[in-house]
Amino acid sequence: ENEVGCPAGFELDAQGEFCMDRDECLDGPNPCSHSCHNAPGHFSCSCPAGFALARDDRNCRDVDECAWDAHLCQEGQHCVNLFGSYHCLPDCRPGFRVAPHGASCEDVDECLEQLDECHYNQICENTPGGHHCSCPRGYRIQSPGLPCLGNRDTQPPWEPGSDPPDVNECLQPAKTCAFQCQNLQGGYRCLCPQGQTLLRDGKTCIPLEQSEQNVTTVSHRGPLVPWLRPRALLPRGSYYAWVSLRRGSGAPSSLGRAWCPAGFIRQNGVCTG
């Protein structure tokens, strides 16, 4: 009983003669975090689908449907718990990930997202579920993390009594230059792509302010000619991409707006070498 002689959950009426039910759901702040249901002498709380009452019988907590039922999803899918619900996502193989719509898997472009281990002067080619590192024509590959070798990179054997052979710093495993390394007798220097300049550290390239006329459309004359991965964002959403262009016949097909790499010139909107 309370102080007026009524059972718990009741109170005296206005005349003070009879005990009447007190509606806890309307009398003051809502005692429940979601829905409140009044009953004679007491009240109860309920939760929406995907939630359950906590131990205090007033607050709602999320139900982990994936932990409750291991067979909610079909074979080849896995269950992901959500707040108040769950979702079945496909199991993706390495090199793939769940597509934005969540119904299938999509390939991860390691070259575009720079998740590859290719050296900066190698060509990264995306493949379904992986990628491949290769070298431009006229160069040969060492390994994914080492630079491509050309004919000028072969060192003659050293003979005693003669000057020691030059060390090609550009062939060292460490990435000396941010873009391109040029070996010199007794040293090296770093080069930057057209549209960029070298910082005082002698290694890092930064974009220059470019006008629209310096942006060209890079095209090629063969569907199998690979792109090198983008290197640096430039003004107006364009980007620099070093391409390996193959001489040949056929109508060029536009691949996008980019800066012509060193060794190529722009002719009628096409980078040619």
From TrEMBL:
It holds the Pfam family EGF_CA. Gene3D superfamilies: Laminin (2.10.25.10). GO terms for molecular function: calcium ion binding. PROSITE patterns: ASX_HYDROXYL, EGF_2, EGF_3, EGF_CA. SMART domains: EGF, EGF_CA. SUPFAM superfamilies: EGF/Laminin, Growth factor receptor domain. Residues 21-61, 107-145 form the EGF-like domain. CDD domains: EGF_CA. Coiled coil: none annotated. Signal peptide: none annotated. The keyword Repeat applies. Keywords: Calcium, Disulfide bond, EGF-like domain, Extracellular matrix, Glycoprotein, Repeat, Secreted, Signal. It is found in: Secreted, Extracellular space, Extracellular matrix. PANTHER family: COMPLEMENT COMPONENT C1Q RECEPTOR, EGF-LIKE DOMAIN-CONTAINING PROTEIN. This is Hemicentin-2-like. The gene is LOC110577888.
